[in-house]
Design brief:
Blueprint (H helix, E strand, L loop, with lengths): L2 H13 L5 E4 L11 E4 L12 E2 L2 E2 L2 H34 L1
Antiparallel strand pairs: 1-2, 3-4
Helix pairs in contact: 1-2
């Protein structure tokens, strides 16, 4: 993955609604209503996100994935950048 691709992912992550996002699955996380993604912390929520594919709701696995990707992407990018810094520092000392 290039530095430019990482920068693009960072830009997209920073532009999205703030984390945390939680997939709220009917029957698993609540008892009635549609499945959705809860955006923001419970005490300061943004509008809920409903995801569809064509004329039907997105799969439950897709909702879980979207929410997890939003929550973990910034940490993953930080980890990749830290590893790259370590590799650059160790190669410049050699």
């Amino acid at each position: 993955m290039t530095d430019e691709e990482l920068a693009e992912l960072r830009r997209l992550s920073q532009a999205a609604s703030p984390a945390p996002w939680s997939a709220m699955i009917e029957g698993r996380d609540h008892t009635s209503g549609d499945s959705f993604i809860m955006v923001g912390p419970a005490e300061d929520r943004d509008e809920d996100m409903y995801v569809t594919r064509g004329s039907a709701p997105a799969s439950l696995a897709d909702l879980d994935f979207i929410a997890a990707a939003r929550n973990y992407l910034p940490r993953l990018l930080d980890e990749i950048e830290a590893i790259r810094r370590l590799k650059r520092d160790s190669s410049s000392q050699a």
